[in-house]
Amino acid sequence: QGVVLMDPSEDPDEILRANRSREKTFVFDMVFDHRATQEEVYASTTKSLIEGVISGYNATIFAYGPTGAGKTYTMLGTDSEPGIYVRTLDDLFKALEATTEEMDYTVSMSYLEIYNEVIRDLLNPSSGFLDLREDSRGSIQIAGITEFSTTNAQEIMQLLTKGNKQRTQEPTAANKTSSRSHAVLQVTVTQKSQRRATSEEMRIGKLFMVDLAGSERAAQTQNRGKRMKEGAHINRSLLALANCINALSEKGGSRAQFVNFRDSKLTRLLKDSLGGNSRTVMIAHISPASTSFEESRMTLIYAYRAKNIKTQV
User: Fold this and answer.
1) Lowest mean pLDDT among 2-16, 49-63, 101-115
2) Neighbours of 12 (CB within 10 A)
3) According to the CATH classification, is domain 37-307 in 3.40.850.10?
């Protein structure tokens, strides 16, 4: 369960730093090495959340880490090795079909990206930029997003692959198909009893699956001009996310922190999943290469902080 990070630039003969090793150990709930399969990662991170979504709780899965460490692979996967999106939805439909006969359920999903602080619908890219609005109950809605209802995981895979082709991808020096946007797949499960009782209750569970954009330094990707600006936007929303995570992990600490969810579209959309009524999993990706030591260190510190957040479901 531990990750040990060694500094590649450490020089054994350096006398000034002889007693201060930059080796750091981080402890997590679960650590996978390069031999882990998609199935293993899914089974130990996400599988347990499905039951909750069906009973009407919210759940969120994040993929976080530097460019090229495999976030999109973990979430979307390939045709032969499908990722978390497909496996989760597969199991979700299986579990729903196994529920009792007297429940009516609908599953609707929307797939969007947040790019340069604007929201685009990936399943209907021609609809332009969309707005975030709050409804009377205080939950955040996206005005004008297409929602597909389906009961079949194959259909969803096709929709997702189609949507993923619409994602803003640009080659950077770090990765030639670098995702330059945060993709959010939102699945809503609504259940109500078929027996028309007077106190008819509806259960609504929301499942967010977020494939974040790569968090890397501009120096690493050698970005200039438009790429540079775009990187600043990516880092801005990731920083807003970090600020929320820091404030939330210090909650109940010595000083009460104000959590600023309105700093970016990403945090506003995920407000419930971070601090509220949601079970949240963060999958942090790091690369074993010594060139990405700094990135790996920042990612591990970030994930380590996120581990201290307690959400109330």
Assistant:
1) 2-16
2) 6
3) yes
Output the DSSP codes for the chain: -EEEE--TT--TT-STTTT----EEEE-S----TT--HHHHHHHHTTTHHHHHHTT-EEEEEEE-STTSSHHHHHTB-SSSB-HHHHHHHHHHHHHHHS-TTEEEEEEEEEEEEETTEEEESSSGGG-EEEEEE-TTS-EEEET---EE-S-HHHHHHHHHHHHHTS-EE--SS-TTEE-SEEEEEEEEEEEESS--SS--EEEEEEEEEEPPP---HHHHT--HHHHHHHHHHHHHHHHHHHHHHHHHTTTSSSPPP--GGGSHHHHHTHHHHHSSEEEEEEE-----GGGHHHHHHHHHHHHHHTT-----
Contacts of 191 (CB under 8 A, 6+ apart): 54, 56, 99, 103, 104, 105, 202, 203, 204
Q: Residues with Cβ < 8 Å from 307, sequence gap 6 or more?
A: 28, 29, 249
pLDDT tens for 219-256 read 555 556 666 666 677 777 888 888 887 787 776 555 56
pLDDT of 280 reads: 85
Annotated binding-site residue numbers:
65-72
In tens, the pLDDT along 25-51 reads 889 998 998 888 999 999 988 888 888
Binding site per annotation, positions for ATP: 65-72
- The closest alpha carbon to 274, from 284, 292, 287, 261, belongs to 261
How far apart (Å, rounded) are the C-alpha atoms in residues 205 and 162? 25
Task: Determine the angle formed by the axes of helices 153-165 and 84-98, rounding to 10 degrees.
Answer: 150
To the nearest whole number, what is the mean pLDDT of the chain?
Answer: 79
